[in-house]
């Protein structure tokens, strides 16, 4: 029996069919998976965009909301600060008015004419310069009148045109109305340049006198600055005005030649401090404060002294007392070296270099040595010129 040629065995055909079916099945699964996966991703992205869009509609941009809240908070804070400032100002004015009334009553009690103006009637001026003097210092006062301090109509003109008030500051004797007081009354009638205080004169009362001067002056004049100067110091009024004008917009300003001297515990020496133990160990120094020959304080500080004078401690040295009143406050201390130039040749050299001094004195004498004899010389060699004050803009 012969074999049939050209026909494959039956089992081979079945194997190929099985392989083809498996391949077709896998291809079908792959295609179906692709078709199912892509639309799902598209829907997922679209859903996310839709949710985000709805979130934006329901909840506006949080950054804009935060900015708006911060703006409102800042605005409210500003309003509160302004209200607080207004209340503080009214409290200070009320306290100053009460202090002025009390001082007027005390002045009237000793038979003197009240010098305090009602608060609303106070003249608005640039600065008040009080020249601290004594009953025995007539020659010193005359040396100032003949040099750097305008007289008569010029003194009134200085007040009206420049807003600068200059007065000799003096209290009364232990026996009001006595010989000493009558002599000052006659001198004042001649020059009209005194500012009398309700204060008993005495060398060891300078801290009290300084406190009463600032309180009384702040109640009489609405000034930007109040200056204290000794009657043996040379002053260039225009230069003083220019340097103060730079600080006019600042609150709580204390301007002078800042120092920090030794606290002297030895009895019998000049500038002895009986309360030396309050400043620490022996040999310690004072806190920074302006030297007493000349310094200026802003209106806020003068008002502060007026309100709190009854609780401000007074040390033996007047300049230390003033510095202690400000040391715990938010006060800007300005170390102005042009307020403590030396007498010729020091101030003369500086003037020739274009740096005219605001004030001149000798450290060795705590003022101009032999000021009555030398004030004219210092004025001629170190002064700003007699007409300078009228051409200086503030």
From TrEMBL:
It is found in: Golgi apparatus membrane. The keyword Cell membrane does not apply. It comes from the Eukaryota. Residues 14-100 form the DUF4094 domain. Gene3D superfamilies: 3.90.550.50. InterPro entries: DUF4094, Glyco_trans_31. The chain crosses the membrane at residues 16-36. Belongs to the glycosyltransferase 31 family. The keyword Zinc-finger does not apply. Keywords: Glycosyltransferase, Golgi apparatus, Manganese, Membrane, Signal-anchor, Transferase, Transmembrane, Transmembrane helix. GO terms for molecular function: galactosyltransferase activity. This is Hexosyltransferase. It is a single-pass type II membrane protein. It is an enzyme of class 2 (transferase). Its main location: Golgi. Its EC number is 2.4.1.-. GO terms for cellular component: Golgi membrane. Signal peptide: none annotated. Pathway: Protein modification; protein glycosylation. Its cofactor is Mn(2+). It comes from Solanum commersonii.
